Amino acid sequence: MNRTHINYTLHIHLSGIFFGWHRRFVWLWEKALREECGYQGHQPYWNWALSANNLSASPLFDGSDTSLSGDGEPLENRNETITLAPTNVTIPNGSGGGCVTNGPFANITLNLPDLDSASGDVFPKNAFAYTPRCLTRNLNSFMAQDFTSQTDVDRLLSSPDIVTLQQYMDVSVWPELREAGIMGAHPAAHMQLGRAMDDFWTAPQEPAFMLHHAMVDRVWTLWQAQDVKNRQYALNGTSVMGNPPDAPEVTLDTEVTWGALGQNRTLRELMSTEAYEFCYEYAD
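RESULT FIELD:
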């Protein structure tokens, strides 16, 4: 799963295939858990708003036996504040930053490199280098309160069209909203967990990744359901990151790939959670 995400990073983010590609990516993960690991449950989602006031107290991150483990060990001499690029908004730093040493994922090893220094639009040469390291976390409740609260979820669901939904979901790329100090819920949830989750390329190594993207999918699904006629098949953008002007706009016939994980699908086949391969729904 991690290698597939890396392979298609420059197409599946900030593009017209972001929602659909990740919908099936999470579904393929759940399918693998069921067929290869004997899992009999369902894919859970991380409701950002429920943990926004206190990440470390959330059942997901409290370090209990049924959690995804807790915060990382506090780093010595860490900065008290951090600046969120490209927003240039300065906020308090998180409470950890070091290796996770409690809960079910204590002391696990991540095998892919930290690609934070890689250029955002060039595939890194060391993308698949064997680089064993610990899972780190830096829980940041301030960021959660400001960018993934119920207010932020409501803003997403109130989007009048797909363009606005994309803007609020990944707001860091929209200058007028960056200037207002707003961070989109998608990148904000990645960033509030620290480096492992915030790595643009290798974030699926963080155990919370699939739950986060199930929540992204839930928001998209609930937004579609508000006006099925006009929203079920609403698309905007290209199949290239950043939607450069020379890239063609996606259509329902645009084919999307997950490499070795599963056969290609058209975007038409990804637009509903109750059609083609999919058969699931979310509580509103």
